[in-house]
Design a protein that fits this description.
The chain is an alpha/beta fold and 380 residues long. It has four domains: 88 residues, Chorismate Mutase Domain, subunit A (Up-down Bundle), CATH 1.20.59; 104 residues, 2-Layer Sandwich (Alpha-Beta Plaits); 96 residues, D-Maltodextrin-Binding Protein, domain 2 (3-Layer(aba) Sandwich), CATH 3.40.190; 77 residues, D-Maltodextrin-Binding Protein, domain 2, CATH 3.40.190.10. Helix content is 42%, strand content 24%. The strands form two sheets. Strands 1, 2, 3, 4, 5, 11, 12, 13, 14 and 15 form a ten-stranded mixed β-sheet that branches. The chain has a five-stranded mixed β-sheet with strand order 8-7-9-6-10. A hairpin with a 3-residue loop joins strand 3 and strand 4. The longest helix has 35 residues. It is elongated and about 85 Å long. The termini are far apart.
Length: 380
């Protein structure tokens, strides 16, 4: 036998598998209609367990694990198809279509926007990149930004969510579990941290440096070279610069932006002191109302998978089958629930694609809890 013969055998087996698969799925749809008519549940755990045991009894030992994986996947697909047979369009998909129809065609220019910090903060710079003339309300904390949007005090909020050097901003992801919101736009901001001090202060004079904890992490290389210098975290890089400018001390400095140097009358002792030159922070714009603007090609969702072996794999295999790229996967432990996690996904998928529609229509059927966080455009 040669390769041609082997391929013919594989093709014949595949043809048989495909015919059997189509027949199985069509039968599943008939079963779904029967169960619905007789008020029976879709999921029958005893039937699935007995079926797996029967399959494994007929399977050679070296193939048992593969057969188990195959049939668990088949059961998932069958349940999903049965649910979709009874519910062709999910309520979430209807909501998304309505939002696309009712959202204005252009992004607002000067709405009220909440962001954390004070004048000169990186969040302010991100606001001005996202909106032409934002009416900015400064908040003392990231949670205050969520609260301002949740209460209707501001229509939008701008929050940092990850940094290319320091990684995910965990507190933001933790707060995302406690507030209901949608992401309507995002952007990436080039972040250059500079060592700022009062005019006349020299590098050797510095005894204490102030900055936000994220900036401190991003500038760890420089800080390691400074001996006997205290590093103090504060709420914001702009607040750090303001604190140095207002202090009567001449031995302090701040890790902040050049914008803050001009704003607070400080000298730049060293520029671009972050560990990597390509230091970007990604910011998201949140809204209490679902808005989907033209050109939206990124989607964010959060979900809880069942606490069983293979649960996450089955979700990931669905993305793979639809050809949807996962840009980011973040997991955060759910408070008061042992070893259970909320999963956050950022996906590359245009809202008008068939793959997006199919994913959203079925995703809530494949996990314990599902929440759509929005589809949006990322501003370059």
């Amino acid at each position: 036998m040669d390769m041609k013969d082997f391929r013919e055998r594989i093709d014949a087996a595949d043809n048989g598998l495909l015919k059997s698969f189509i027949d199985r799925m069509n039968t599943s749809a008939d079963i779904a209609r029967f169960k619905h008519e007789h008020k029976l549940p879709i999921f029958d755990s005893e039937r699935e367990r007995n079926k797996i045991l029967n399959v494994l009894e007929q399977t050679p030992p070296e193939l048992k694990s593969y057969a188990s994986a195959l049939y668990h996947q088949l059961f998932d697909l069958s349940r999903n198809y049965q649910e979709q047979t009874l519910r062709p369009v999910s309520p979430m998909l209807e909501t998304i279509k309505e939002a696309i129809e009712n959202t204005e065609k252009s992004f607002p220019k000067n709405p009220p926007v909440a962001c954390q910090g004070i004048e000169g903060a990186y969040s302010q710079l991100a606001c001005e990149k996202l909106f032409s003339m934002p009416n900015i309300m400064y908040c003392s904390s990231w949670e205050s930004v969520f609260s301002a949007v949740d209460s209707g005090l501001c229509k939008y909020g701008v929050l940092p969510i990850e940094n290319s050097t320091a990684g995910s901003i965990n507190l933001i992801y933790d707060l995302m579990m406690h507030y209901h919101f949608y992401i309507v736009r995002s952007t990436r901001l080039k972040v250059n941290h500079n060592l700022l001090a009062k005019p006349g202060t020299k590098m050797e004079d510095i005894k204490e440096i102030f900055s936000h904890e994220q900036a401190i992490i991003q500038c760890a290389g420089l800080l390691k070279t400074l001996k006997n210098v205290k590093v103090t975290a504060c709420a914001n890089t702009a607040i750090a610069a303001q604190r140095v400018a207002a202090s009567d001390r001449n031995d302090t400095a701040a890790l902040s932006s050049r914008h803050c140097a001009a704003l607070y009358g400080l000298d730049c002792l060293a520029d671009s002191v972050q560990d990597t030159g390509s230091n970007f922070t990604r910011f998201i714009t949140i809204s209490k109302k679902l808005e989907i603007y033209p050109g939206s090609d990124k989607t964010s969702v959060k979900l809880v998978v069942t606490h069983k072996p293979g649960s996450l794999y089955r979700i990931l295999s669905r993305f793979n089958a639809l050809g949807i790229n996962i840009n980011k996967l973040e997991s955060r432990q759910i408070p008061d629930r042992d070893f259970e996690f909320m999963m956050y996904f950022d996906l590359d998928t245009p809202i008008y694609s068939e793959e997006f529609l199919e994913l959203i229509n079925a995703l809530d059927l494949t996990c314990e809890q599902f929440e759509y966080l929005g589809s949006y455009l990322e501003v370059i």
